[in-house]
Design goal:
The radius of gyration is 21 Å and the shape is globular. It folds into two domains: 76 residues, no CATH class; 159 residues, no CATH class. It is 63% helix and 2% strand. With 242 residues, the protein is mainly alpha-helical.
Length: 242
């Protein structure tokens, strides 16, 4: 249960203070009979993780507000392994949006099976394009951070943790579906806001994971976007319909 998970994470030294980002031996001390006491950070003298007493909805709201404390709680002090599934679902949302826009631009309403088959493969193609762009974006970020701060990404676990943080922080893409379903005149503006929100979340994830200032994460994201668009342009020149 919670006690076993707590001991396992403490043994790995995985806990962090959500205020100062220093390593912590434990989040709370169990005095039995339901009596728990939140541990105090030896560095900043504040609770190591106040969010362990919070409702998940409150934590989610704080994460949406891009609070560094909420990000540290999620990334360092909880065991969440949904980043892979979340990534796939976000890519499906993006692929569906592109596929829908592609169908809207097509005036062919022929119910023939071949037409429906072609439209189905169009969706798979959109999924592949979205995956390609996402991969290029992440590779651009990793290359930039590795080049500028080599000492921060020197182990495999560092790469995995940052990848997990970036995938989890892309949850804003889930808003693409309701933005399309409730389509109105301001949908393009909503989609632009969703894109900006995802980039802000990615920036905060990099900042929290590597304990950086605000400038370097944005620089990494900028080069990630350049790399993403560069790969897309390259495939277009090769004749790929992306």
């Amino acid at each position: 249960g919670r006690g076993a998970l707590s001991r396992a994470m403490a043994a790995r030294g995985a806990y962090r203070c959500i205020e100062c980002n220093r390593a912590a031996a434990e989040l709370y001390r169990d005095y039995r009979r339901g009596v728990l006491r939140i541990s105090i950070c030896k560095s900043c003298q504040k609770p190591v993780d106040k969010y362990i007493e919070y409702d998940p909805v409150i934590i989610l709201i704080n994460a949406i507000l891009c609070k560094a404390q909420a990000y540290r709680h999620i990334l360092f002090n909880t065991k969440i392994n949904i980043h892979g599934k979340l990534c796939i679902f976000c890519l499906l949302c993006e692929a569906y949006l592109r596929w829908l826009q592609l169908q809207d631009s097509s005036q062919n309403t022929d119910p023939d099976d071949l037409i429906r088959y072609a439209k189905e493969w169009d969706f798979y193609r959109m999924f592949g394009i979205a995956s390609l762009e996402q991969t290029s974006f992440l590779v651009g970020i990793f290359i930039t951070l590795w080049w500028m701060r080599l000492e921060m990404l020197k182990t495999k676990s560092d790469f995995i943790l940052l990848l997990k943080a970036l995938l989890l922080s892309s949850y804003g893409k889930l808003l693409l579906i309701p933005a399309v379903i409730w389509e109105h005149d301001y949908t393009p503006l909503c989609l632009a806001f969703i894109k900006v929100f995802v980039l802000i979340s990615n920036s905060q994830a990099i900042r929290v994971t590597l304990n950086l200032n605000r400038m370097l994460p944005w620089l990494a994201i900028f080069f990630g976007l350049i790399f993403e668009n560069g790969v897309v342009c390259l495939f277009k020149k090769m004749g790929w319909d992306v």
